[in-house]
Inverse folding.
């Protein structure tokens, strides 16, 4: 069997949470700041509004990650309880089910029998085994919800502060937007490359997609604010 599949599954979930938070963090506050630049001439107002959005967005994203993590744990626990009931009500049938799973991996009948017999001593481990290798469900960490909230919310805040930082340093909104665009483009390209490597996508295509989406959102916000103003 594969080594430490639960740890691998939770690592994948951590990567997913980081990607979700960082991609939104680099895009949404940047688009907001660009939009405000098209309508406001005071960098301090844009910086303050950007900070408020980052705080609200980080909290909202974190809460969303927490609720999703809680739902993931509850969903797994419900399946585990169902499997435990099946083992208690149909002990021999579930042992045969374990042997069938092992047969699919090419294990000999003798090994199947010995493994199924030893595994059946611990019903919870047996339920976890069938969930993992029959249903493809990995047991999430008990603190999955808290980690998800921290990763999504934290990466959103970090991603949002990066393109907003020029507005704290520049006195002109034009200069702030200029440097914000440069920083955002570089960060979006870098993030697109990292995201593509983590998710196994083509690097150039992934980086280009992330960058174009972020810049399109910012451009749309800027011109809409210009027309409205």
């Amino acid at each position: 069997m594969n080594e430490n599949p639960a740890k691998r599954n939770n690592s994948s979930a951590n990567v997913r949470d980081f990607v979700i938070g960082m991609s939104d963090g680099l895009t949404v506050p940047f688009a907001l700041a660009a939009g405000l630049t098209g309508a406001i001439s005071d960098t301090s107002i844009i910086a303050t509004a950007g900070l408020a959005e980052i705080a609200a967005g980080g909290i909202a994203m974190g809460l969303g990650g927490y609720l999703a993590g809680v739902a993931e744990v509850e969903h797994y626990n419900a399946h585990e309880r169902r499997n435990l009931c099946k083992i208690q009500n149909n002990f021999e049938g579930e042992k045969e089910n374990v042997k069938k799973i092992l047969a699919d991996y090419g294990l000999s009948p003798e090994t199947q029998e010995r493994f199924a017999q030893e595994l059946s001593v611990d019903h919870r481990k047996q339920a976890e085994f069938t969930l993992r290798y029959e249903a493809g469900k990995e047991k999430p960490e008990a603190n999955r919800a808290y980690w998800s909230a921290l990763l999504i919310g934290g990466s959103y805040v970090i991603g949002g502060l990066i393109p907003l930082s020029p507005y704290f340093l520049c006195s002109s909104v034009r200069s702030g937007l200029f440097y914000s665009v440069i920083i955002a483009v570089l960060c979006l390209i870098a993030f697109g490359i990292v995201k593509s490597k983590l998710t196994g996508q083509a690097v150039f295509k992934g980086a280009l997609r992330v960058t174009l989406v972020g810049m399109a959102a910012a451009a749309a916000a800027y011109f809409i604010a210009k027309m409205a103003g």
